[in-house]
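Bench notes, afternoon.
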Amino acid sequence: MAAESSNLIIDPRSGFCRSSSIFYSKREPIPLPPSQFLDVTTFISSQAHHGKIAFIDAATGRHLTFSQLWGAVDSVATCLSDMGIRKGHVVLLLSPNSIFFPVVCLSVMSLGAIITTTNPLNTPSEIKKQIADSKPVLAFTTTQLVHKIAGSNFPIVLLDEYVINHTRESKIVSTLDQMMKKEPSQNRVRERVEQEDTATLLYSSGTTGASKGVVTSHRNLIALVSTLIQRFSLDDRDTYICTVPMFHVYGLTAFATGTVAMGSTVVVLSKFEIHNMLSAIEKYRATYIPLVPPILVAMVNGADEIRRRYNLSSMKTVVCGGAPLRREVIDGFVEKYPTVTILQGYGLTESTGVGASTNTVEESRMYGTVGRLSSSMEAKIVDPDTGKTLEVNQTGELWLRGPNIMKGYFNNADATRLTLDLEGWLKTGDLCYIDEDGFIFVVDRLKELIKYKGYQVPPAELEALLLSHPEIVDAAVIPFPDKEVGQYPMAYVVRRPGSNLSGNEVMNFVAGQVSPYKRIRKVAFVDSIPKNASGKILRKDLIKLATAKESKL
């Protein structure tokens, strides 16, 4: 892409080229290996670093050195090969966060096989749908979760200790511990893995519809790792806390691949609990803390107690993704934790978690932005109604292109065609604009716009207003169906403890600050707002709740 743009006239400030209507990244391009035959595991293992400890279990202190990690990957890959796992086979990983999660992923991908992960909180029926779609030939899971895949016809490897009873659990064929003790074989079947081969099959969060399998290549992951190496200047003195789920693109790409390549230590929390996280930061002197916005907000609100109970002086950087941070949250965090830098990022499962980021303190002070385009990425802003490409400071759908963009949706040509065009542009579904300095601002999800009498109402705009109310802790705005106006904004509100805020007061508060068509016309109070692993509001769940209650009246 950079070579193609070398003869174009590109605005050095915004990165916009009028002749192509493309915004080009202002960051240094990432170097990608030229070899066609290369898997991401080999690429990661070839990165030079001086790191010693790769992963630490926060609860037990058990750890894997980098030497032990790569020895385990070789041993498990040998066992998988002996079991008949070959290039193109799908392997399911159903597990909470674990220091062994990366071992499984790296082993599977080293063979050219495909790793598909699923949320441990998913129901058996939800997991069954993913199994039916992805058709795994083997599964890794834990003793506590094995019941969720009962009835499946593939062999199972347990990640924890278990006395194998072949008469009771005939499908359990081994444990990861046994596989890790296997002497690696240089004679195992080695198929040539190409960068364009599929490496992972992650299922999108389904915030606006049915979950779809996102096909990610080895090249996509190599580009992701290269981007992280360029963005973060880390060494063996840096320690991450893994607070986000590894089954999700955020956790998988950052902790099962990226940090391994950089030689940093990762302290793994099997599940998130804020005080466990804070204790781990103190105990292991963590420097980098990846978070989603709700956790960061909690750290701001509880800052006084947190600083009394925990020594967080080691923290250097908080990396936040999932949704843009409001100005008051950033200012509040900087006030409470003045020595810590906040960096933000924007990405989708379909873009391997990469798209835009703030990489410096100065960039992070650009309030409301998710950052500048990531290295080697290009963007268009497109009018969703006319298809016309737009310019600086004009709002439309964000399209992305670059080495991180997925191959497509698994066995879903129609969905792929709607999302990826023939030139490789990913239609993100996010309404955005890019300003004169190349910063991307997310206005709302295109599919989540509320259509009131033909007007388009962005829920995120109303949510930002609601969250500015001193008695509102959290809020979500959804489209409520109405025969006369089409849809109108309805708010779900979490009140601050002790508050008696009424629905009318909420509606009046918003009405005084917005156009008449944007007014909230219905309010419900809840204990919490449902969100996915990356902190995005699950509007479809709230819409179901609202319409179900209405149908009973």
